[in-house]
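Work Package 3 committed the consortium to producing structural models of liganded targets before the mid-term review. Because experimental data for this complex are still outstanding, the team generated a predictive model from sequence and the ligand definition alone, so that downstream docking and mutagenesis planning could proceed in parallel. The input record is reproduced below exactly as it was submitted to the modelling pipeline, together with the SMILES string for calcium ion.
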Amino acid sequence: MTSAIRKLVVSGAVILVASGCAGPRRGPPQRGMPGDLRPISEQEQNIRLMLSFDGNSDGTVTREEMEAALKRQFDACDLNHDGRIDMREMQIENDRRFRAFGTGASPLIDWNQNGQIEFDEFATTARSMFAELDKNHDGKLDMTELRLPMAGRGGPIVPAEMQERRRR
Ligand SMILES: [Ca+2]
Ligand SMILES: [Ca+2]
Ligand SMILES: [Ca+2]
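The resulting structure, written out as tokens with the ligand in place, is given here.
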């Protein structure tokens, strides 16, 4: 084997090893984020949305507050004020949401595909979220119903903490 060929072989091997390293990788072990196992849950998103409807900021969201907030949002989207959101208005609003929230944006959807969104259609998602969260069916979401399911639940697996212990 000439030295030139040997070099080629060696560098080829190096490339193989390098690409092997770049292959499927487990998450970097030093990352101490407990969120690895728990991406923002749908419930958490819903709760955040509901809290944004809390018009008087008292920590409780009544159905009236939600309806009023939805109506304001709807009116803001209904640029020509004809009481419905047409495809053009929907596009404008969805562009705005995408710019504001990126991939986390929840776009307006013309569920029944009739080319426009009426207020009831606009409100459907939020209303069903509300109903789902209103565990005691009293028409309002109080602080216990809007509690974020994050800290303090002491689940069995706390990856960051366990890694910390193993390193010691
Ligand atoms: Ca309130
Ligand atoms: Ca309109
Ligand atoms: Ca309730």
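Reviewers should note the following from the model. Strands lie at 61-62, 85-86, 116-117, 140-141. These observations will guide the Year 2 experiments.
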